[in-house]
Design goal:
metal ion binding; BDH-like; methylglyoxal reductase (NADPH) (acetol producing) activity; Rossmann fold; globular; 8 strands; ADH_Fe/GldA; Dehydroquinate synthase-like, alpha domain; 49% helix; ADH_Fe_C
Length: 394
């Protein structure tokens, strides 16, 4: 193993009826006035929000609802949430939902603890973040892994920029996970989540770092587990075993354990963020739409690494590394197709894009070629453009 520092302090409450322990967790972590952050209202329709609010009320914990989070969470909504939290005197932020609600809650927590400081200045690290409010999570979708990561992403819709922030202040205090809460999700959200889980591991796995066998074994096992249970969930998303495995894989895929000791790449994520910012593409779909073009563009940097992936994850028997690498890419793309996920830009709602749109996204991804994207193969503006061009078909 190579050197690393590992820190994953989030308490996980996992299993059936786990949501009924939410109030006790809030109280345990010092919450007495809670801002409840959630999305479009599905948590209301399902009765989950009523359950949580009942638990909070019975525990004597005051709360205020802040619903309306959208996919690719907006900076402006988080900023308004800061105002609501400050006005309410919130001392704890509770996200009920998936990655978008969690990332919004993290943003609100940072802004509330630092009133008078522009949230975007915090997010772009123009102003150092030195304090935040505690955040808890009731997870309803296996996807982003934000419930155990140090990361969060917000979209500044005013300037069309999707920006991530990594800081230990993004670590939530607890994550309540009941796989049964995922049963009523639209299938598209389930499959986008499957892609996102895989990509959080793949974007760590493709590295030139050597000597991390245990990390590799964990990543490969997680990918095999997601692939197998993703197929089961596609057929029946009320399969508790399948949905529980996906939910736990979601957390492990983004809490750092699948990339310990290695450089992180995250090129598909960075390219996908430009699609999401410009066209409001669902995060998982943005990743599957560019992954094949990225993989085919970079795999010759180290065919043996892609061959290892093909053999360990997909069971490819080919002895030649280049041919094995190609087959691993084909099987990955085939798996995405089997879940009805887009595998090129033309399959997204925006369709095949104009040339100037590709150039604009390549410029944004690289700051007009002022910095490189990724580590496995450093990608300059021209490289990002070429990947997008290769993906730009039906």
């Amino acid at each position: 193993m190579q050197e690393f520092i590992y820190y994953a302090p989030t308490e996980v409450v996992f299993g059936k009826d786990a949501e009924k322990k939410t109030a006790a967790e809030v109280r345990k972590w010092g919450g007495s006035r809670v801002l409840l952050v959630y999305g479009s209202g599905s948590v209301k329709k399902s009765g989950l929000l009523d359950t949580i609010e009942g638990e909070l009320a019975d525990a004597g914990i005051a709360f205020k609802e802040w619903g309306g989070v959208k996919p690719n969470p907006r900076l402006s909504f988080a900023e308004a949430g800061v105002e609501a939290a400050v006005s309410f005197g919130a001392d704890f932020i509770l996200a009920v939902g998936g990655g978008s609600s969690i990332d919004t809650a993290k943003g609100i927590a940072h802004g509330t603890a630092n009133p008078g400081t522009a949230l975007w200045d915090i997010w772009t690290q123009k102003v150092p973040l030195t304090k935040s409010l505690p955040v808890g999570v009731v997870l309803t979708i296996a996807a982003a892994g934000s419930e155990m990561s140090d990361s969060a992403v917000l979209t500044n819709e005013a300037i069309g920029r999707k920006q991530g922030l990594s800081t230990d202040f993004n670590r939530v205090k607890f994550a309540v996970m009941n796989p049964e809460l995922t049963y009523t999700l639209p299938k598209y959200q389930v499959t986008c989540g499957i892609v996102d889980i895989m990509m959080h591991t793949l974007d760590r796995y493709f590295t030139h770092t050597k000597g991390n066998r245990m990390t590799d074994e964990i990543a490969e096992a997680l990918l095999r587990t997601v692939i197998e249970n993703g197929r089961k969930a596609w057929g029946d998303q009320t399969d508790y075993e399948a949905m529980s495995e996906l939910m736990w894989c979601s957390s492990l895929s983004h809490n750092g354990i699948t990339g310990l000791g290695a450089e992180k790449d995250f090129a598909p994520h960075k390219i996908g963020h430009e699609l999401s910012a410009k066209y409001d593409v669902a995060h998982g779909a943005s990743l599957s739409a560019v992954w094949e073009a990225w993989a085919e563009y970079v795999y010759m940097e180290e065919p043996a690494r892609f061959a290892q992936y093909a053999r360990k994850v997909w069971g490819v028997q080919e002895d030649d590394d280049v041919e094995a690498a190609k087959e691993g890419i084909r099987r990955t793309v085939g798996y995405f197709k089997s879940l009805n996920m887009p595998v090129c830009l033309g399959e997204l709602d925006a369709g095949v894009l104009a040339e100037d749109a590709l150039v604009d996204m390549a410029e944004r991804a690289t700051g007009k070629d002022t910095f490189c994207v990724a580590k496995f193969k450093e990608l300059h503006q021209g490289d990002v453009y070429e990947i997008l061009r290769r993906a730009n078909h039906m």
